Amino acid sequence: MKFRPLHDRVVVKRLEEELKTKGGIIIPDTAAEKPQTGKVIAAGPGLRGEDGKLQPMGVKEGDKVLFGKWSGTEVKIDGEELLIMKESDIMGILA
Question: How far apart are CA 25 and CA 38, in angstroms?
Fold first, then answer.
């Protein structure tokens, strides 16, 4: 990918979720919600504080993250559907 996010922005690729419930019911594509988990594809260098020092990012490439339902901006880069969001839109890193 030839895209490098700036400041505290993060590029995330949504992870596909299971379309079947625990009880075995298959959920059709039209009724399924978009997943709220994703993999960090790229992260910016960090945000500059008031003192001018660079604050490092809390996430890095390859992290599996949980983000808000309406977080980020959907973009298409190299034919891939991705999200660009601020680091503060990410709720946490999944282990």
Answer: 24
